[in-house]
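Hi C.,

You asked whether I'd gotten around to modeling the 157-residue construct. I have! Everything is below, sequence then structure, no commentary in between.
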Amino acid sequence: MSMLHKTAVTLVAACFVAGAALADLYVYPKEGQSTEQTDKDKFECYNWAKNDSGFDPMATPRTTSAAPSGQAKSGTMVKGGLGGAVIGGLLGGKSGAGKGALAGGLVGGVHQSQYNKKVESERAQWEQRESANYTNNRNNYNRAYAACLEGRGYSVK
């Protein structure tokens, strides 16, 4: 699974979790409002909360910043091994080539591993920030929506 695919899956999952927050809101007409009036008030409060909070729960979620551009690398160990073999061969003949290949492969592998861990960490931090940002915006919308409906005589839980 590619990093971009993992990111998309993570953000979609976060949106479903946050989307459940709206589904969990129960609206009860405390003043005997009709179903038609309740639907009208819900729609008007949706528009007001959307404008007040700057968040539209019906819109396709978007990220607020670009994903980190780093891509996980592979093949650095092989490249390091080849480079080490060439340098070792130039400096120490056949036995130097073997030792150089081993040393180059180890150095290349360590470098690749460190780089890949850094890339994974940056992406995980970015995903966490985006998810938290979405959740915060959704919570602000829900509070505005509930305040509007409560102001119109509904109990919102």
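If it helps when you're writing up: Strands lie at 27-29, 154-156.

Thanks,
B.
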